[in-house]
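User: I'm putting together a small comparison set for a docking exercise, and I want a reference complex before I start. The sequence is below, and the ligand is adenosine-5'-triphosphate. Could you produce the 3D structure with the ligand included, as structure tokens?
Assistant: Of course. I'll restate your input first, then give the structure tokens for the complex.
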Amino acid sequence: QDNKFQAIISHAKEYGFVFPSSEIYDGLSAVYDYGPYGSELKKNIRDYWWKSMTQLHDNIVGIDAAIFMHPTTWKASGHVDNFSDPMIDNKDSKKRYRVDHLIEAFADKLTEGGKEQEAEALLAEMERLLAKEDFTALKQLIEDNKISCSVSGTVNWTEIRQFNLMFDTKLGSVAGDAETIYLRPETAQGIFVNFLNVQKTARMKVPFGIAQTGKAFRNEIVARQFIFRMREFEQMEMQFFVRPGTEGEWYQYWKDARLKWHLSLGIDPAKYRFHDHVKLAHYAKEACDIEFNFPIGFKEVEGIHSRSDFDLTQHQQYSRKKMQYFDTDLNEEGKPYGNYVPYVIETSIGLDRMFLLILSNAYNEETLTKEDGSTDSRVVLNLPAKLAPVKLAVLPLTKKDGLPEIAKELVDSCKPFFRCFYEEKDAIGKRYRRQDAIGTPFCVTIDHQTKEDQTVTIRYRDSMTQERIHIDKIKDLVLKETF
Ligand code: ATP
């Protein structure tokens, strides 16, 4: 499993998907840059989410709020006081660990040793103690389970303490006059503070949602997990505002709807599961994660939270501005009141984590048997065609006899519609392999017969089958399969 994860990380770098940030200076811990194919794939995932949320739901609109927000926002939201993880330091190695990650690592070791029931019991006990914030008992649990810690002998632990995850910086350049502000640790608050602006200007009626994608920052205590856990990352969040009392149904609705979205990408349902939270975040009434079976095990990719009226009420209190909705429908139904603070269901997914999900799911090392019985191998990304960075590669068989001209004409006619790639160098087999490695679903080869009858060879990435079709049919075929 770990080998596969390492192979994916190398592949991502070699083929221009993900690079360590500032690599020439040996990188920056838990920060990454997206390369030419990675940025396309990431954009396609973001667009796919955005379209499903806004374009396909009449009652959801988008916004694009700033990363910087008034500092009181984070006081009201509870992040200044509560957005922290319990951590513990190993005094000898000077390494810092998140308590839950450390205990999860112990549980993984137990599982590896075939002691699955003990692992389950350990995790259950951890969740129980975290919910109670019983740090003395948690420290004891760590000490009792140190068998699996990489440091041998006695481990000298510090006490467990809370570590706030927000980054701060200074607004204003005059020394002494600066105000401490935070880099947002989630995009959600930009939605809450704009609740009435959006509701009024877009003339929305409850129930309705506001969607947003954008960067968030958390000073994570990181285990090396590539883009799974980053200090700067992107979220895709949607807050759905509902009548008080209906939140239970809507929570269920969004749980189902979000799982359907994941499965619409053709991913095996067995790789997904729900995990209900025992320890609820400071704002949550009910919460679950959608977990995916990554090469590093089942991990959270998305959270669905029933946040009650917590956020809007808090902002109302701190800003002294009304955050209420006047529900005319209620009055018409003869109900006693029309003004209320709506309840909120949130769906929150990490774009980078979804990227890792898509990449891990697509990455395959295949052994191929050739016609003469000998074997060959290929690395292929079986990406969903609609997310692939390049949709069509056009490859003239030779660099002469007018074949490049025909190929370029095809590229020119297709490129306003989808991303194409043209290449004339190297043997055709080698060119196919390079496209397999970046997940291009269709390759078209132009050969001498094309000049005679305007047919080309189209090769399908997953099956590697080929067929001859008329050159005029290519654009529509690719459009149909990648839309
Ligand atoms: P975790 O328990 O893994 O720290 P969380 O429960 O704190 O995550 P949320 O606050 O619910 O995460 O954030 C919603 C989503 O944002 C997560 O499901 C995840 O996909 C993404 N996310 C959160 N933190 C990070 C991070 N450090 N790097 C990348 N993605 C992240």
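The pocket of adenosine-5'-triphosphate is lined by residues 186, 218, 220, 229-230, 233, 235, 300-303, 348-350, 352-353 (CB under 6 Å). The chain has 17 helices and 23 strands.
User: Thanks, that's exactly what I needed.
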